[in-house]
């Protein structure tokens, strides 16, 4: 596990011997992390002050969401994804006793309401099955539809490939387009997204006596990460879909796109009979691939790639 951590670009090891860095100090031959926690408490307090000023609400927030005793460094464990070839190791980092957990809970409570506004983001896998059955049945009942294709895909290593700074900008831009951000709540939206930045900045782990800071991706194991990933992907997908509207009108393709975490399903239909090419590739499959390529191109600092998992 440690070899996996040290051999990736996702983590940076802390030098616990450098007491001049203002991270730790030695007290009675033991590590004392108080300077470390003081730094992050101060950074959080600055964000809260920008939002609430000197009002009691700011003090209430700090009392409710920063716990000096939440100092148990998260320790990761690995899950082998046997369905991948070759098998891949996915590390999970529980944030149960860590200082950013309560802030993450606060952010999730705010952003989850907006995720529920996105009808193509599915909350449960069972919802996916029912929705697909209804969608395909409705399309088959439309007499103009002569061709139908269904494909499933998986976003490769999604959490680790998302640059959270880029994700926050994409989420904010999408929220403005949807009318979620207005003059009345703009300040609070900025506050919440700054809290996301703080949570990602405080993503630390320990393993085998070593301490690491996560410097790329969303922290695996934080309940905040699925929410940010969902909204990030939604913003990117929305941008890509709008960019291809005229293309799909030209080829007479109607496309439905559904997302459950890192699992994607695309349903394409056409009122024309679309014949597979000499290599057995369906034109409707190519239309779905065009959208996936556009999604991949819509990011700069993040990386979005897809694994094909099946079709019908």
TrEMBL record:
Occurrences of domain Reverse transcriptase (ranges): 1-312
Keywords for this protein: Nucleotidyltransferase, RNA-directed DNA polymerase, Transferase
This protein's name: Reverse transcriptase
A Pfam family recorded for this sequence: RVT_1
Gene Ontology molecular-function annotations: RNA-directed DNA polymerase activity
Domain of life per record: Eukaryota
